[in-house]
Amino acid sequence: MFELFAETLAIAAGVLAALGAGTGVAGWLVIRKVRRTRIIERTKDRGILAARAYAPDRLTREPARLIADLKRSTRATHAALEEAAAQGRPVGDLPRAAAEIDHAAAALENLLRTADREPNRALKQEWTSELGTQARALDELSADLRRCLLQTSRSIDTLQLEQATTRLRTEISAMASWRDTYGNRQNW
To answer: At CA 146, angle to CA 140 and CA 151, rounded to 5?
Structure first.
């Protein structure tokens, strides 16, 4: 009886060890896969950036806010371009201009991150001020691009409305003519 109990205990320990090892390997693979995806890194970066944007020290807060504003402007520009393309509106060469703005924003973001790490407060203040001017100018360029897309969509919407109105008036006129010609007859 004792031998049966010992065998059962040994088999159970072996099964538990195998399940534990399998779970450990599977967990390690999942964690490795998640770490290699940029989702965790981006989320962490956004969280740190958001926390720094509300820091009490102005020299800590300002670069983070400028970076966040650049990212927000870039996302808005891409969303506007995607919406215009999805609706079939003409976008011309605006996607290329948006790509150039993105490239400039990425370079400016790197400079802002470097300025944020600057230990000398006077130099950090000077550098952040200069980069802030550039960031606001870049944000205004992005806004101009979105404004252009909006004005284009308004003109197209106005043209489409005029075409629909003309088409509707033609159909109403045709139906009235049909009614006057054929609609009043009782029997054929």
So the answer is: 120
HSE-CB at 165 with a 13 A cutoff on CA atoms is 6
With beta carbons less than 8 A apart as the criterion, state whether 143 and 73 touch.
yes
Instruction: Find out whether 62 and 128 touch, Cβ atoms under 8 Å.
Output: yes
Distance in angstroms (rounded) separating the CA atoms of residues 43 and 45: 5
Per-domain boundaries in the chain: 57-169
What Cα–Cα distance (Å) separates residue 73 from each residue in 8, 26, 104, 140?
A: 66, 41, 12, 9
The answer, as to whether pTM is greater than 0.85, is no
Give pLDDT tens digits for 27-52. 888 887 777 777 767 777 777 777 77
Contact criterion met (CB below 8 Å) for 149 and 81: yes
